[in-house]
């Protein structure tokens, strides 16, 4: 892992760093306006597409399939080989360091943490408030193992949470019959104005008897995904972000749009992918209902079957066929 001279982490592929002045420029409306990804006249008013959690399936998951349940945003329940994993668990009412009306949850939670127990491990991609929430951490059992990128362990240690494994990019560790590989992402970290990039950000690949499962976390598009696919693919299942991408002049370095998400799907050689990082919090300028529509257009342009990369209803559970590669 490469660092800049002041000890802060950096991306493998340099990109423009947007600071507080650029944030104000965006929020005050002085930046470049995006061309719509799709005809905005066909984008409906956002209404959460929610279904009841299938408790029978959650409690007795298939041993012959990878099982994915979308809780919202980047939070998924992954059930494989008898283990239950959560990704970037956020169960609070907003994704901010203090109660926030603008960053409130726009879709209801389909389940409480107690509905998903037992949770054996968590994959944490980075420390932003829409991915790491203290109240959720405290609600999870202390026996849960947290897999976190380098530098994030100190945050857990200060809160008397000792059951974590810190990983650098490309480092691998065993978890029962599975192995967890920390892989690069194109992003940044910060929880205050003063700690930018002091901790690492990442994605994860889980090697399982049913095939590799890729959780991309939060990322802009970069050549790193072809490297991940070459070293660890093909993927049986991938969770790839498709939202929070507008305006592009500000978001492109760190948030991919649906067109780029399809490129990631192809780069990592994914047999089946689902879209994450949308439909839960209003983080950016695009209409909240736009990402799935833009994804369908992008798949058609790339001649990728719509069945190979889809979005889920919040609370929905999918069975993914094994794909050992």
Protein architecture, described:
α8 (258-267) crosses α9. Helix content is 20%, strand content 21%. With 325 residues, the chain is α/β, with parallel strands linked by helices. It has a single domain (49-319), classed as Ribonuclease Z/Hydroxyacylglutathione hydrolase-like (Metallo-beta-lactamase, Chain A, 4-Layer Sandwich), CATH 3.60.15.10. The strands form 2 sheets. A 7-stranded mixed β-sheet has the order 6-5-4-3-2-1-14, with no helix packed on it.
Morphology call: globular
Cα separation of the termini: 28 Å
Strand order of the largest sheet: 6-5-4-3-2-1-14
Number of domain units: 1
CATH class category: Alpha Beta
Order of helices and strands: HHEEEHEHEHEEEEEHEHHEHEE
- CATH H level: which superfamily? Ribonuclease Z/Hydroxyacylglutathione hydrolase-like
Strand residue percentage = 15-25%
What's the Cα radius of gyration?
A: 18 Å
Structure summary, number of beta strands: 14
Low-pLDDT stretches are none
Q: What is the CATH architecture annotation?
A: 4-Layer Sandwich
Give the averaged pLDDT, no decimals.
94
Indicate the CATH topology. Metallo-beta-lactamase, Chain A
User: Helical element count?
Assistant: 9
Short key terms for the protein model shown above:
325 residues; Metallo-beta-lactamase, Chain A; 7-stranded mixed beta sheet; 9 helices; 20% helix
Describe the SSE topology:
Blueprint: H1 20-27, H2 55-59, E1 66-72, E2 75-80, E3 83-87, H3 113-116, E4 121-123, H4 134-139, E5 145-149, H5 153-158, E6 164-167, E7 172-175, E8 178-183, E9 203-208, E10 211-215, H6 224-232, E11 235-241, H7 248-251, H8 258-267, E12 273-276, H9 290-301, E13 309-310, E14 317-320
Parallel strand pairs: 3-4, 4-5, 5-6, 10-11, 11-12, 12-13
Antiparallel strand pairs: 1-2, 1-14, 2-3, 7-8, 8-9, 9-10
Helix pairs in contact: 8-9
